[in-house]
Design goal:
Layout: H1 20-30, E1 36-37, H2 52-60, H3 75-87, E2 98-101, H4 103-113, E3 121-126, H5 130-138, E4 142-147, H6 158-164, E5 169-175, H7 187-200, E6 203-207, E7 232-237, E8 250-255, H8 262-274, H9 280-283, H10 286-290, H11 296-300, H12 305-319, E9 323-325, E10 333-338, H13 348-359, E11 361-362, E12 364-365, E13 376-380, H14 385-404
Parallel strand pairs: 1-11, 3-4, 3-5, 5-6, 6-7
Antiparallel strand pairs: 2-8, 7-8, 9-10, 10-13, 12-13
Helix pairs in contact: 1-13, 4-5, 12-14, 13-14
């Protein structure tokens, strides 16, 4: 039979987080090995649980979950998102401005599918969450990566950002708190980014899935509170803050001027209708999740699980002869660098493979986050601190082997 080839649209699409290394890890597990998987922010896999009240809300509404719901989502969920936005000072939103989705991932794909024509450009941070670059590419666009240099704490370089805009630029993506770096952008930087987008008439896409996960007094500033003169789409969901990855519930809220974007928003309504609706049972948890005590704060303060694991990662890096890191101020990851002067031939791909094969630890190589360097890797803050201490001992052994081969 003739060789069955995949679509050419996938030629430049990468997702290293669940790529060849993850497949190799699965093979090792099938062979009986225990692999410590630090490649993905799969919260429930590390013993975290969604609040009991959210599960109860789903159970109590199961009888109403058999039919399709409206394509934008059930009204109580959308109205809860509106109330959260209004509590933050974003007043120009109604339930009609909210789209519920099967996680933020589906909504990212949908928002770009409705916007882009062949060759259109989208400004995406580097490092980025690679779904953004993949989604731009799959929808015929070109991802133009604006630098967020480590020397500046992984904060966007505003002048470099401005220089990258062209007549084909359609949108600006802001990931804050950032995945993979954990950077939390200062208000002044966000204001400069928004003014630039407004000057250019760009749609602003604010990926804020980690909005309430911050450490050491870092302040999260919702982009929509700063955006007045261009359309702003804000992404949020239950996966991270509410520890409910498997519920697959995300939302996209549009604020700012909308009249000029009427055709685009109708296109999104069409796309939402084509997939019929998003997961109905999970949507019933949204109203409960967004109201009342936010239990994530117990995890991010000193003594909390995420905070203490973050501390263990910083301690592990500090003890290492080879590693450095910018302390994450938010999200659930650290983007760890290797000192090239100590290991000049270091390759993040080779290191990650060797760490997996020899020490049964799975991390994501830094190149998978669309950076022009190959001396970083991403690790999640989700395991217990004791596990992290063990992992960094294994990492040091592998890097000692690198040094010994010089």
């Amino acid at each position: 039979m003739p060789r069955l080839r995949p679509s050419s649209s996938l030629a430049n699409v990468r997702y290293e987080i669940r790529g060849p290394l993850a497949r190799r890890a699965a093979e090792l597990e099938k062979a009986g090995q225990t692999v410590i998987k630090l490649n993905i922010g799969n919260v429930g896999a590390f013993g975290f649980r969604a609040p009991e009240a959210m599960r109860r809300a789903i159970v109590e509404n199961l009888e109403q979950s058999d039919p399709y719901c409206p394509q934008k989502g059930i009204f109580p969920a959308r109205e809860a998102v509106v109330m959260q936005q209004q509590s933050r000072g974003v007043m120009d939103v109604t339930a009609d401005d909210v789209f519920m989705g099967n996680g933020v991932s589906e909504l990212i794909m949908m928002s770009l599918r409705g916007l882009l024509n062949e060759g259109d450009e989208v400004l995406v941070p580097s490092p980025d969450y690679p779904l953004w670059t993949a989604a731009v590419t799959l929808n015929g666009g070109t991802a133009v990566h604006y630098p967020c240099p480590e020397t500046g704490g992984f904060i966007p370089d505003i002048e470099a950002l401005r220089a990258l805009a062209t007549p084909r630029t359609r949108a600006l993506v802001i990931i804050n708190p950032n995945n993979p770096t954990g950077a939390v952008y200062p208000k002044a930087v966000l204001e400069a980014m928004i003014r630039f987008a407004e000057e250019r008439g760009l749609v602003v896409f604010a990926d804020e899935i980690y909005d309430q996960i911050v450490y050491d007094g870092a302040t999260f500033v919702p982009v929509a509170t700063l955006c007045r003169n261009t359309l702003c789409g804000t992404f949020g969901g239950l996966s991270k803050v509410y520890r409910a990855c498997g519920y697959r519930v995300g939302w996209l809220t549009f604020s700012g001027p909308k009249e000029h974007a009427r055709e685009y928003l109708l296109a999104l309504d069409l796309l939402a209708g084509l997939r019929l609706c998003s997961n109905v049972p999970g949507q019933w948890a949204v109203q409960t999740a967004l109201g009342g005590h936010q239990s994530i704060w117990d995890l991010t303060k000193p003594g909390g699980r995420l905070y203490e694991t973050r501390r263990a990662i910083l301690d592990g890096v500090a003890r290492s002869k080879y590693l450095h890191v910018v302390a994450p101020q938010g999200a659930i990851y650290a983007f760890v660098g290797v000192r090239c002067e100590s290991l000049p031939d270091f390759s993040d791909r080779q290191f990650a493979l060797e760490l997996l094969e020899r020490k049964h630890v799975l991390v994501t190589p830094g190149h998978g986050f669309n950076v022009p360097y190959a001396d970083h890797f991403r690790i999640t803050l989700l395991p217990e601190p004791a596990v992290v201490m063990d992992v960094f001992a294994r990492i040091e052994e592998v890097l000692d082997g690198y040094a010994g081969r010089r």
